[in-house]
Amino acid sequence: MDGRFTRRNRRTAYENPWITVWHDEVVRPDGSPGVYGVVHFVNLAVGVVALDERDRIVLVGQHRYTLDEMSWEIPEGGVPDGEDALDGARRELREETGVEAVRWHELARLDLSNSVSDERAAVFLATELTHGSPEPEPTEALEIRWVPFDEALAMVLDGRITDAISVVGIERVALARLAASAAAASAAAVSAASIDIAPATSG
């Protein structure tokens, strides 16, 4: 037994332009028959941590129907098959906030809920920003806020930001900064130690 589920057959239980719900009849890892529901997403999800020259991050607020709650998030959207993830991230950032960026760096690739869904995501850092006018989709009623990065990190830690892509993106930037600070401190300590133990030279 290798711990795998084996699919015997599959039928489509529900479908729309964004998702398909599959009802699978399976053989469980212990050999018993069972069923498995899978939510297939058409698009790759993307999110962008966009930081300006004042170390502020842009957040997008919107009502999330599934939770019936207001959610503050980094700019996010879907990238259809055939569009590059980075190109899709550029497009979503521009559409939702009017912001464009010169420098881009991929922060993470994610499986968002792998027990029931095959949805995957890519998260990017965008810097050296220019500002324009947003062009949201008709289905989107968005609020835009620029907050200091440290405040956004605090919002993650105290639960004001709970969106998974946003949490990972913001924390990845925070961890990268912490690692860079630790490396700089270590390098400074090594440099100081080398000065302290340098042999004296006679005149």
Strand order of the largest sheet: 7-4-9-8
Please give the alpha-carbon distance between the first and last residues. Answer: 77 Å
Write the H/E string, N to C. Answer: EEEEEEEHEEEHH
Rg measurement, Å: 23 Å
Proportion of strand residues? 35-45%
Mean pLDDT: 92
Low-confidence stretches: none
In total, the number of strands is 10
Give the overall silhouette.
globular
Helix vs. strand class = alpha+beta
Put simply, the count of helices is 3
Question: Largest sheet, described in full?
Answer: 4 strands, mixed
Helix content: 25-40%
Which key features would you list for this structure?
single chain, 203 residues, four-stranded mixed sheet, 41% strand, alpha+beta
Give a description of the structure.
The protein is of the alpha+beta class and 203 residues long. Helices cover 27% and strands 41% of the residues. The protein has 3 helices and 10 strands. The chain has helices at residues 85-97, 149-157, 164-196, and strands at residues 6-15, 19-27, 33-41, 44-50, 56-64, 69-73, 76-79, 99-111, 120-131, 143-148. The protein has a 4-stranded mixed sheet, with helices on both faces. A hairpin with a 5-residue loop joins strand 2 (19-27) and strand 3 (33-41). The longest helix has 33 residues, at 164-196.
